[in-house]
């Protein structure tokens, strides 16, 4: 992609946020930090509860050696001070983000977003160029900016590769967040790009983070959309469910229509931010048998998405770039992708 093509990429849609690209990454990193933090707390609580129950079975054991669930905070794995600091600093920003997201992710908006996706082409370029372009649009000079998108993509992919996972899963690690490029095309802000996802068209689950903010969403009072099943049928399958619009849905549609990636790969892309489902066990009543198989795949992938981030960039050597460009071409045979 030459400089003229790159400039056209960010000047055709009229929705330009170049000066705020770093904020998108800060919001997403804060959200992911919150998810990781809560996940660790939940795991520790579960582990502590299990140990307490098992130890309670040995009545001859002195009570002083038994753990009580109220002492869970003492059994937590030490968390780096920097992690706690980022969590607390991000808290109000994350709350503000979710307030806006929960108020605006309506059925009406989601229908229009899908119409927009299907009726226009925003850019034509390779997957690698898109990764590079997304990173370049972020203001890397901002002192508070985390690693760029391509660095996180490579970290995730390399972690999956190091564990000997199949090539298709390595590619998912590389492209799972590529849909964030939507922010520079036609997004309304940040709320329709990043953050946890959830179904629209049925009752908003209590398991969704900051559930209270749905009170301002008109769908929460709709006679159909506010019902548990809403517009869906029991066990209809998540393929039939409209998930809140954002980078996951956007990239899922691109990969589904323009790649040869298998079903599990598409599920990882589409559902990796669907935390109410894959971590909180919500929306089971919408699942069919195949969704349980996809759930295992998404949970396997999620550990690499959340916990692969490092403090240092992965050096994008020619060898590493060549490896992933060949991997991309293997599953995206047309090479030039319509975004």
TrEMBL record:
Gene3D superfamilies per UniProt: Hypothetical protein af1432
Cofactor(s) in the UniProt record: Fe cation
EC number: 1.13.99.1
The keyword Cytoplasm is assigned to this record: yes
GO biological process: inositol catabolic process
Cellular component annotations (GO), alphabetically ordered: cytoplasm
Catalysed reactions, as listed in the record: myo-inositol + O2 = D-glucuronate + H2O + H(+)
Chain residue ranges for the region called Disordered: 45-69
Keywords noted in UniProt: Cytoplasm, Iron, Metal-binding, Oxidoreductase
Pfam assignment, any one: MIOX
Main subcellular location: cytoplasm
Subcellular location: Cytoplasm
Pathway in which the depicted protein is active: Polyol metabolism; myo-inositol degradation into D-glucuronate; D-glucuronate from myo-inositol: step 1/1
Binding site for substrate: 85, 139-141, 180, 195-196, 272-273
Record-listed Fe cation binding positions: 152, 176-177, 247, 272, 305
Cofactor: binding comment: Binds 2 iron ions per subunit.
GO molecular function: inositol oxygenase activity; iron ion binding
Highest taxon above the source species: Eukaryota
Family recorded in the similarity comment: Belongs to the myo-inositol oxygenase family.
Descriptive protein name: Inositol oxygenase
Organism this protein belongs to: Eremothecium sinecaudum
